[in-house]
Give the backbone structure.
Amino acid sequence: MRDLPRQLSAEELAELFEGRTRFVERLAALDDPLGRAREVAQELSDEEKKEILDAHPAIGGSTTSLRSRREQGTDDDPAVLAELAELNAAYERTFGFRFVVFVNGRSRREIVPVLRERLGRTREEELGTGVDELVQIAVSRWRTS
């Protein structure tokens, strides 16, 4: 497992966070960008939080990056994928941004109840949770790359 880096370029951070956003640009200008990512994320506007969440591929979606496909596993049960698609759409209608969760070795089937539970939360809670999950994903990616 790798220690967190003292400096990363915007390109390296964009790969970890699935897109070159204003958040990534801010982090690239800092020492210890991954160590400070949660702190910086808390200072983002709701619009900027939405931007970084929407840059991440939808769980179970067909347009995920190779890295995301590996992280999400190979649970390709059509019923699970259909349910995830339905729940993802409901989530985006409810909150106005993409559902992001740190899969951490769980199958897509195991994510379904997590998504269901999070649909019952407030938009503010979900913005915070989603961004925190995104930071966990990026840190994990760095440490396991």
About this structure: The chain has a mean pLDDT of 90. The chain has eight helices and no strands. The radius of gyration is 15 Å.
